[in-house]
Write a sequence for this structure.
């Protein structure tokens, strides 16, 4: 009789013990509620859960990648744009993520959507196109400030693509072309100015040394003569002509 009475009790204990065994992975934590009251977290590994009295919610603490769908917003300078982003975050306090907010993953996504629209509305189109890293960091801080009480830490935010109207794309292309043309003209003018300065310096040097002019003339004749099938016309200076005439007159008088 004693064994017949004790066997069901032992069996019931074994069944309850089997139902109370829980296992959490390394990246998981079990948030335990006992009769509706938070008693803490358990895991990772093997632990016991009191049947019918305690209830647990498993929380994944790995980094979550959330895609923020394209949001159409108007920039500070009244240009409509469409921007999407990616948010990386993880749960650092499992208890808060269960007690403080309902459906924490959905809540973070909605906060990210709102933050993205707000960021676009506070900056001009040039800022959105040229300072994406700065805006992404600002967006990360804004999201993190909201989700910190929920036990969520935002690791990184990256703005992916910015879509602007076609008319604005054509205007930006014309602006870029005008800037390139302006830069080319400035470079050409600077080159001409430098060349003029060099020529002026060379002229001053030749004026100080007339023999330098003759050397330069002879060098030019040599360069022209080096070309094939070319005829070279040498212009003699007036001083040479006068000298030749003087020699001729002296020779005539002697005769």
């Amino acid at each position: 009789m004693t064994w017949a009475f004790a066997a069901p009790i032992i069996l019931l204990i074994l069944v309850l013990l089997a139902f109370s065994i829980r296992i959490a992975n390394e990246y998981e934590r079990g948030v335990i509620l006992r009769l509706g009251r938070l008693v803490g977290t358990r895991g990772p590994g093997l632990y016991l859960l009191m049947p019918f009295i305690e209830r647990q919610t498993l929380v994944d603490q790995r980094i979550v990648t959330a895609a923020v769908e394209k949001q159409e917003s108007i920039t500070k300078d009244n240009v409509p744009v469409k921007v999407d982003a990616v948010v990386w975050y993880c749960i650092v306090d499992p208890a808060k993520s269960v007690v403080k907010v309902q459906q924490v993953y959905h809540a973070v996504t909605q906060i990210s959507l709102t933050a993205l629209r707000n960021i676009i509305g506070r900056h001009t189109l040039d800022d959105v196109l040229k300072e994406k890293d700065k805006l992404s960091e600002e967006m990360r801080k804004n999201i993190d400030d909201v989700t910190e009480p929920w036990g969520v830490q935002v690791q990184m935010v990256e703005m992916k693509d910015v879509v602007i109207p076609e008319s604005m794309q054509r205007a930006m292309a014309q602006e870029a072309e005008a800037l390139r043309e302006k830069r080319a003209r400035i470079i050409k003018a600077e080159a001409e100015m430098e060349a003029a300065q060099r020529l002026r310096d060379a002229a001053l040097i030749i004026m100080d040394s007339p023999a330098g002019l003759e050397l330069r003339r002879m060098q030019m004749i040599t360069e022209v003569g080096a070309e094939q099938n070319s005829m070279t016309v040498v212009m003699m200076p007036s001083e040479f002509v006068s000298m030749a005439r003087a020699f001729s007159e002296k020779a005539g008088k002697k005769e």
Summary: Residues 12-58 form one domain.
